Amino acid sequence: MADPSSYRPKPGQIPDSPGVYRFRDEHRRVIYVGKAKSLRQRLANYFQDLAGLHPRTRTMVTTAASVEWTVVSTEVEALQLEYSWIKEYDPRFNVKYRDDKSYPYLAVTMNEEFPRVQVMRGHKKKGVRYFGPYAHAWAIRDTVDLLLRVFPVRTCSAGVFKNASRTGRPCLLGYIGKCSAPCVERVSAEEHRELAEEFCDFMTGRTGTYIRRLEQQMMEAADEMEYERAARLRDDIEALKKAMEKNAVVLADATDADLIAVAEDELEAAVQIFHVRGGRVRGQRGWVTDKVEEITTGALVEHALQQLYGEETGDAVPKEVLVPALPDPVEPVQEWLSGRRGSNVSLRIPQRGDKRALMETVERNAQQALVLHKTKRASDLTTRSRALEEIAEALDLDSAPLRIECYDISHLQGDDVVASMVVFEDGLQRKSEYRRFQIKGFEGQDDVRSMHEVITRRFKRYLAEKERTGEWADGENTLTDASSARLPDASAARLTDASSDHPADASSEPLTDTSSAPLTNGLKDDDGRPKRFAYPPQLVVVDGGQPQVAAAQRALDELGIDDIAVCGLAKRLEEVWLPGEDDPVVLPRTSEGLYLLQRVRDEAHRFAITYQRTKRAKRFRSSPLDDVPGLGETRKQALIKHFGSVKKLRAATIDQICEVPGIGRKTAETIAVALAQAAPAAPAVNTATGEIMEDEESDTTAETSGEPVSAGAPDERRGQER
């Protein structure tokens, strides 16, 4: 725990202007981001007597080891920069709403020749009509299933549509009347687009006229004694009414509004949001957050607005946003929302009428969500705390291991040897900090040497980061002029890690533009994010027994690291091994600590196996054409399309290869030589005629596609995977 006075800046150093500030811990990791109308007044609140601070604020300032700030021109700029930095650094002490997902929308792709109705998530695309968001994808599918009877719009993927067009046979929905089958030209593109527009009209709330028209058609059919048609229209009307019941009118005048309610206690807060479009509730979503510092309801609302609209396109912000309390000050937030929408947004507290009644409903939902969360969370928190305490006691650690890293080695009979590193913080997965490694130091199968290499590489990175950040001046505070402050761009380029130590589920890490970042001793301020190797664990777990544990401990000893505990979990008897011990530590089978170690180990094994299989599949998909210099994917596909297979391409003459568009004679000669060298029985090239001469036995050779001939397919050999 640090003494805040050790890094407290002098009052005269802090500007009395709007800005954003960052608290960092001893590892230079950003732990809190905040904004202020006056940086001097706001930061002074953190450096008062510790006894006067809120307990969670006291924990934050004693965890921090430095503070820095950036000056901006207006409070709106401060709001934007604060949101960008929270997204970039993921600070542990900031308000973070959990259970937030990319909520699904019902989308109609009006930008296509044959519009498609589908469920879509994520960023919105130009030319696509969106309805929602909905709380569950199944709610969308239920509604669509009812409406397809009346509006048989295409719902199939591009591949299914193309296949149906090629074969002349529609899919099942086309046969049962829930698709108008434009793929086989049952309707024209214009007629299908009219159906899609009618579908959109119905979803926007223009339902009364359409249902009255169907009722009139039903009566006319009955009068003309076309009873089958009348019955079909009757069923269509019932389907539409059933779909409408799912979206009852709650606000008159086709109002578009979002209603946000907050239920809170001293430790946590639950936020519920109702999305009302065209006067109907189109979706509902909810978040829960820990209150890591003393925070008002208005501040919680502000964070919820940032979370809700920060990454959405402008049309996602409705004309009205109704809240239980206004942020202080409210003007910058309202200006920011109006900028996101492109027109004025009303941010206010409903006082009476239908909107107030609906807000009370949203508040009841928030209260129920908080109660339900606490019921689940109570046992969860207790269990995780007990698990960490049991591990600390069993391994004789000074404190509970709040950060655990686990390593596993994976290979297939010595090929494609890889390793994984997974991270658990406070007993929960931290997937953004997962890493994966390719073993580079040697060839073949040796789990002990592989473990030594991986631990060495990981903690060399840690020492390098520690040494680099240690060069920063103590108590350093950064003052950046507003003209040079740059907001992090969500679409920043990405950089592949040259050491092949990849982040989880990706092969690259964000490359942050630091061209305008402040310099200290020649170093750019580009660290602070938790997505680095600079943050050390309290416990390293390896998948294995004594040999693997000894290798990991030896790697740490060689690097001079003596403050990180090491243990191993053997699969056979689930024994916990410690370095230098002849006997394992045996935790009870009912132990929460053992269960947590098993979860960590199994997650590391899953992540390693996934990476290993990905590498193996990529190798199996290789082709002899991959080794031809200067031959790209387009020309490779053109060659295969022209000849039909690599085998037929290998048998072709150089003149025949030159007939492929884009292939010159020099390239054709290179291809012929490369295929000749890759052939199992290497043929010779007749330089006089340009023909490839094959041996008599070449017809019995399997077609070379880059996949090694072996006993059993990959799936049949998974039992041999490590």
TrEMBL record:
Residues 259-489 form the UvrC family homology region profile domain. Residues 474-530, 686-722 are annotated as: Disordered. Keywords: Coiled coil, Cytoplasm, DNA damage, DNA excision, DNA repair, Excision nuclease, SOS response. Residues 211-247 form a coiled coil. One of its GO terms (cellular component) is cytoplasm. GO terms for biological process: nucleotide-excision repair; SOS response. It comes from the Bacteria. Residues 509-519 have a biased composition (Polar residues). Residues 208-243 form the UVR domain. Transmembrane segments: none annotated. It is found in: Cytoplasm. One of its GO terms (molecular function) is excinuclease ABC activity. Pfam families: GIY-YIG, HHH_5, UVR, UvrC_RNaseH, UvrC_RNaseH_dom. Its main location: cytoplasm. Residues 16-95 form the GIY-YIG domain. Belongs to the UvrC family. Interacts with UvrB in an incision complex. The UvrABC repair system catalyzes the recognition and processing of DNA lesions. UvrC both incises the 5' and 3' sides of the lesion. The N-terminal half is responsible for the 3' incision and the C-terminal half is responsible for the 5' incision. This is UvrABC system protein C. The gene is uvrC.
